[in-house]
Structures are given as structure tokens and as C-alpha cells.
Amino acid sequence: MPRPKSPDPKTDALRSVGALNPHPAAVKDEIFAGSDFFDRRDLVQVRYEMVRVCAPTADPSPRQQRASACPGPPTTSSVPSSSARASVAFCQEARPKGGHKLRAEVVEALRAARTQDPAVDAASLVELVKRRFGVEIHARTIERALKKKRS
What is the domain extent for residue 71? Predict the structure, then answer.
């Protein structure tokens, strides 16, 4: 059944491009309060302001000083800090859900290695994936993938 149209065209537009913030009430920065320009529903804008306000400057503004609640890992660890262009790219980035590094071919290679040697440990499988596919995957991620049933 198609989703009913919302009465707000901006909400529909943000949803259509994947930029609708699923948790607008969680945005506490006062710049978004009562503003016609700043919109808590716009995920790209919220992320951009997060990067901008958390970026270190020589003379931090009062807003930056109050922003001591800048998000912790994994968000700040994945924030590029070298240029504004990288910051904007981060803001537009749609974060993948699930095991995006575990493509079907990677999982098949892991299962084949485990079938060949049932005693192979996760650390060895990490090295196998890095060597064969050029991807770094945490050992726990590999263990979870191997426990899942084939789909």
C-alpha cells in the first residue's frame, strides 16, 4: 500500500532523497529553535552544523563552547576534518546498515575456509579477507556472519 502524502511538501521532499532526519526532536542546538532557515528535519543540514560547530577553531564561539555535547564515537571518528568539502561529503553520506563489507562473495569465501578447516580462527579469517578482497573486517563481524543461516 502506498504511503499517504504528508501535508508538508518539505517532509516529502526530504524523505524522497533520503535526507529526512528520523529523530528531529533529538536536535538540541538552539540554532534550530524557531528558525525559518535551520530545519531539524533536514539530516544533511543537521550533520553539517554538527561538523561545523565541533570543528576546532582558534577562537571558539560561545556556541562552540556550549557544544561540548558533540557526538562521540563512531560519529566523530568518521568525521573528515581536513577540508570543508570532506565535511559536506560526510553530511551527505548515507550510512550503510548491516554488513556492507560482507558481500556475498566474501561470505562464501569465509564459509569455504571454515568448511576446509573447521578449527580456523576469526583472526586468520580477518587476514584472509584483507589479503583476498582488500577489506578490513572485524573478527566479531566475521563470527556473526558465519553463524547466520544461508539465505
Answer: 9-92
Q: How far apart are CA 81 and CA 1, in angstroms?
A: 43
The Cα 119–Cα 113 span in angstroms is 10
pLDDT in tens, 29-81: 888 888 888 899 998 888 888 877 766 655 555 655 555 444 443 344 444 44
Query: Are 84 and 117 in a shared domain?
Result: no
Distance CA 59, CA 13 (A): 37
Q: Is residue 51 within 8 Å of residue 91, measured between CB atoms?
A: yes
> Can you tell me the distance from the alpha carbon of 142 to that of 145, in angstroms, rounded to the nearest whole number?
5
pTM (global) more than 0.70? no
The DSSP element (H or E) to which 109 belongs, if any, is: helix 104-116
